[in-house]
Structures are given as structure tokens and as C-alpha cells.
DNA sequence: ATTTTATTTAGACATTTGCCTAAACATTGA
DNA sequence: TCAATGTTTAGGCAAATGTCTAAATAAAAT
């Protein structure tokens, strides 16, 4: 839960998640959309992975990142306790 | 949206929200439940108020904090885009 | 009036965060 | 094998964060 909220508490990381809604993408393709350096984006991706918001698979020299929507359910569950 | 995620990115603040599910409470009553100093809790309450997750009304020398569930809908809306 | 009680504001300090550049690692292609 | 490409790791730095104590503010009680 901590890692989840931490990962979401950054506009760049939230934008990465929104980008991945369109489908999996390589680290490089993701990095192209932002003005930050590749290492910076790599670090953001690492935090998203720690929160299990994304998964990564190595494909040759590329690393493909994919949204993991499973974790959203955990978050929704936490939020729903406030809806009653 | 930024203030919202920022406010949620702290276990003490999330615990305060959960405390307020049981009903409104004064700053002092909230602070009693934690090991932190009153100023620290006051600061957390300030961040929750900035995110509009809580409202506060002064009642005599007390300040009563109340959950504001309205903002949760905004968050649910953001999450929902990932569910399809 | 003065003191007590409730809360916030101010200022300091250590830790965490987000960014960078340089270097390392891993895979592909000449 | 050597060079090019894609990505991560390492290390450094400024800004933000979470905590504290001391002081200020405001209302209540004596």
C-alpha cells in the first residue's frame, strides 16, 4: 500500500501509466515522450514496478513495460471503505 | 490531483482518514491516537485539508475535522479509466 | 485579570525525492 | 571482434518532506 501511493504521487509516473493504457511500450519509447533523461525515466519505471503497477519483460536489448491493473483493485478496495 | 495524491502518500494521514470514518473529531482527539506531537498532526491535518479530503470547523477553542468524501469520487474517476 | 487548555505557526534538522551526468551492462550488427 | 544501441546503476545535488521544540494565538475557567 505504501509503495502504491508512493508510486502514484508523481505526475510523471501517472503520465507513464496513462501512456501504458494504450498498450505495452519499451523503456525508450516511454522516455521519448518526456523531457527527462533516460535514467530518470528508468528510475520512475522502477518505482512503478516496485508498486507492481507495471511489469517488465526483456525482449532482446529492449525492455517492454506493461500495465498491471490487478493492483488497482487493491486501491479501489481501500477507497470503497469510505463510500459507505 | 497533485495535492490529493500527496496527501494520501503518508500512512499517518491515511490512518487519520480512517479514524474520521467513525465520525468528526477534534484535532486533539485525533492527535491522541498517534505518538507524534500535536504540531506534527496539525501539519498532517493541514495537508489533508489542502487536498480537500477533510474540512474543519472551529467550535469554541476546539477545531473539529470532518471527512469530505466528495474528493474520493475524483480519485475513483481517475482510477476508472484504467479498468476498461 | 490571570492561568489553563486547544491548536497553529515558525524555525530547525535529518531523510527522502527527483533530477542530472558519467559509467556500466547487455544485446545486436558490421 | 568491435562498435552501436537500449537500458540500468552509481553518485551527486537541490528541493521537498516529516519530525521536533519553542513560541504565538484563541477561547475557557478560575
From TrEMBL, chains A, B:
CDD domains: HTH_ARSR (cd00090). The keyword Ribonucleoprotein does not apply. The keyword Membrane does not apply. Residues 1-84 form the HTH arsR-type domain. Keywords: DNA-binding, Transcription, Transcription regulation. InterPro entries: ArsR-like_HTH, HTH_ArsR_DNA-bd_dom, HTH_MetalResp_TranReg, SdpR-like_repress, WH-like_DNA-bd_sf, WH_DNA-bd_sf. It comes from the Bacteria. This is Autorepressor SdpR family transcription factor.
Amino acid at each position: 500500500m505504501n509503495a502504491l501511493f508512493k508510486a502514484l504521487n508523481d505526475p510523471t509516473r501517472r503520465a507513464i501509466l496513462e501512456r501504458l493504457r494504450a498498450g505495452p511500450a519499451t523503456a525508450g519509447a516511454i522516455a521519448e515522450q518526456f523531457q527527462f533523461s533516460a535514467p530518470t525515466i528508468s528510475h520512475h519505471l522502477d518505482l512503478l514496478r516496485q508498486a507492481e503497477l507495471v511489469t517488465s519483460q526483456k525482449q532482446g536489448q529492449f525492455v517492454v513495460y506493461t500495465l498491471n491493473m490487478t493492483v488497482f483493485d487493491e486501491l479501489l478496495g481501500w477507497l470503497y471503505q469510505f463510500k459507505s
